[in-house]
């Protein structure tokens, strides 16, 4: 999207899929994350002796792995990644982000990006700039609603903290380029992590589940739709079409949402004792108060359900089902088939009634308007299927990829476990063949083989995969049947597995996983990949000020001496700093070692310039990270007991990290 000179190695890195995991080197190994992961997993071991033995072995694996990284040569990708970082640093006028579809990265001018976002938000019938930040007021309303539900006996008192939010932040909007559309418009994406009504929305989502049974039109995934449509025979006067709603979420009529809840209240109230008027207030709070932050502005969404919200898809789906139920009896013919996937509809219609059917769909509500795509040359794409009408009218299916789709998948150079790369290749091959009728499978095997080769997969692996998959229909069906049977096998009296994450580092994490799964029987360890190419991408979401961040390990320096204090908080940092300030002014109440140092020495701490050392939302991980950072800082005024729980087996590893920082 930009005409700028760059080296081949930079172009190669920037063109990688955002999911590619970059290899670590000796200088950026996530040692603290790995130690924390191991300790959280060992927390489920009841025997102290076994816990000490496993911890000692884990520390040995980690220590040996760190030593190997100090001596090993740099990876083949590392020079290219450094060159890409330097290129992006030297071109601040550019934006690097992922595309809306296609697993590719897009480079565009920052000015062009902001122009397109501003143009999108200029629609005053949908968006309105707010003078103030509505986050705190909405958080209070949501928490008051939780108290109201507790008072009515609708929520157990001990559960109220599950639905309350104490440190909400505004939802953030950003745009992803739709490279498959003319003019490359942006698709608005709203991130609602930490937003005021997020927790309360999950309560409403559970209560709306009964309304999903109002219609049997939904497509679960491409596989189930392929099994239903493959082999269906069309009449000569029938045609396949797809209807697509224009901007569904911002156009969902809220008055219809309220009407549907009232109309079907009997089905909902069987599962709750929440009164109808209170439930309508819940709907208003959780899906009708849409707003977001863009740069320094707060924007109210005037129509539709809140974009990015937990309830958006459910509420929109409820309206879409009612729309279909409303349309069907008004058609002058018997509708043979209609299936829905979010905002896309697949229909089989009489050729003579396509236009009037579209008109009836568009009569449901003036805000919900549909576009129509008809089959061309007896072919119609739907989801990732290409539906093909044969000469006899029989429908067959082919694996479909849009003309604008890239051939990117997980690059073989990615620092992922080999098993993950193999699984990716198998899934790609399996998907292409399962979604295809027998006559297309050989061609699709070749297409997938070419894709895998383009992403660096060895020819030997590709050859084995192609040999495993027979082009015959029976072989594929047998494979699917075997997988269903395997998935249905239940081991009686088997204890439930707890899935826990382990940060992936080549040469270290696989050995730790083998150790932990051998000695911690009730835990299934899964790798976390956090060093991805997407870290090179431009931050498009508005950043929260440091004082409004929460779930952090922080460091406060003393202004009058080299002493510092390490702490952690789930509250806003400004709230925690204010509490420290009050403790420093009150000599008669016991505070932290920070306030004790300030009072005894007459010193002042630099609360305005507090630094974030780490981020963890889970309390156990955050407390453990706090202890690690206390051990890594020479001049902490924290109590010695603040590091209780850190085993001495990590002392050598932490000492090396500490020495490297000085």
Automatic annotation (TrEMBL):
Matches recorded under Gene3D superfamilies: GIY-YIG endonuclease
Pfam families: HTH_animal
Domain annotation Helix-turn-helix: ranges: 408-462
InterPro entries the record matches: GIY-YIG_endonuc_sf (IPR035901), HTH_animal (IPR058912)
Descriptive protein name: Helix-turn-helix domain-containing protein
The species this protein was found in: Nesidiocoris tenuis
Record lineage: Eukaryota, Metazoa, Ecdysozoa, Arthropoda, Hexapoda
């Amino acid at each position: 999207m930009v005409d700028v000179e760059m080296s081949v190695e930079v172009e190669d890195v920037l063109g990688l899929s955002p999911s590619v995991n970059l290899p670590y080197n000796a200088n950026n190994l996530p040692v603290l994350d790995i130690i924390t992961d191991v300790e959280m997993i060992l927390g489920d071991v009841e025997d102290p002796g076994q816990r000490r033995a496993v911890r000692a072995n884990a520390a040995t694996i980690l220590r040996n792995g760190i030593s190997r990284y100090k001596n090993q040569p740099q990876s083949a990708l590392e020079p290219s990644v450094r060159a890409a970082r330097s290129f992006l640093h030297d071109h601040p006028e550019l934006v690097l982000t992922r595309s809306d579809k296609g697993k590719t990265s897009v480079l565009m001018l920052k000015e062009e990006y902001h122009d397109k976002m501003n143009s999108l938000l200029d629609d005053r019938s949908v968006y309105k700039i707010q003078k103030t930040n509505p986050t705190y007021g909405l958080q209070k309303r949501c928490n008051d609603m939780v108290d109201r539900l507790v008072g009515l006996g609708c929520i157990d008192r001990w559960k109220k903290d599950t639905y309350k939010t104490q440190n909400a932040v505004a939802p953030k909007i950003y745009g992803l380029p739709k490279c498959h559309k003319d003019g490359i418009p942006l698709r608005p994406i709203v991130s609602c992590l930490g937003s005021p009504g997020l927790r309360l929305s999950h309560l409403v989502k559970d209560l709306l589940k009964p309304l999903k049974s109002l219609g049997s039109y939904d497509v679960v995934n491409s596989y189930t739709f392929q099994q239903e449509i493959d082999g269906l025979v069309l009449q000569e006067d029938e045609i396949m079409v797809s209807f697509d709603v224009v901007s569904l979420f911002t156009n969902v009529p809220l008055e219809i949402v309220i009407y549907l809840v009232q109309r079907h209240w009997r089905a909902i109230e069987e599962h709750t004792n929440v009164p109808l008027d209170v439930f309508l207030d819940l709907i208003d709070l959780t899906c009708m108060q849409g707003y977001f932050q863009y740069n320094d502005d707060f924007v109210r969404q005037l129509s539709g359900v809140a974009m990015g919200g937990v309830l958006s898809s459910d509420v929109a789906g409820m309206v879409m089902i009612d729309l279909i139920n409303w349309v069907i009896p008004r058609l002058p013919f018997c509708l043979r088939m209609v299936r829905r996937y979010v905002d896309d509809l697949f229909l089989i219609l009489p050729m003579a009634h396509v236009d009037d059917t579209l008109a009836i769909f568009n009569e449901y509500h003036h805000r919900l308007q549909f576009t129509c795509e008809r089959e061309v040359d007896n072919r119609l794409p739907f989801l990732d299927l290409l539906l093909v009408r044969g000469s006899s009218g029989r429908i067959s299916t082919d694996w479909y990829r849009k003309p604008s789709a890239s051939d990117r998948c997980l690059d073989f150079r990615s620092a992922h476990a080999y098993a993950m790369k193999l699984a990716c290749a198998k899934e790609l091959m399996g998907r292409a063949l399962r979604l295809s009728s027998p006559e297309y499978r050989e061609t699709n095997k070749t297409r997938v083989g070419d894709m895998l080769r383009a992403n660096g997969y060895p020819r030997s692996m590709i050859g084995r995969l192609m040999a495993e998959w027979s082009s015959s229909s029976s072989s594929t069906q047998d494979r699917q049947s075997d997988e269903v049977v395997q998935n249905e096998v239940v081991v009686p009296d088997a204890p439930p597995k707890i899935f826990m994450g382990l940060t992936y580092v080549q040469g270290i994490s696989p050995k730790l996983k083998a150790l932990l799964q051998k000695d911690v029987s009730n835990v299934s360890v899964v790798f976390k990949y956090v060093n991805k190419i997407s870290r090179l991408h431009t931050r498009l979401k508005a950043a929260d000020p440091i004082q409004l961040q929460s779930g952090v390990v922080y460091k406060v320096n003393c202004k009058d001496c080299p002493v510092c204090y390490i702490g952690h908080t789930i509250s806003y940092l400004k709230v925690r700093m204010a509490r420290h300030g009050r403790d420093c002014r009150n000599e008669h109440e016991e505070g932290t070692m920070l306030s004790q140092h300030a009072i005894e020495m007459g010193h002042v701490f630099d609360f305005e310039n507090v630094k974030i050392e780490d981020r963890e939302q889970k309390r156990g991980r955050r407390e453990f990270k706090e202890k690690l950072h206390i051990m890594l800082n020479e001049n902490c005024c924290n109590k010695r007991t603040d590091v209780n729980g850190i085993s001495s087996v990590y002392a050598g590893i932490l000492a090396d990290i500490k020495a490297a920082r000085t």
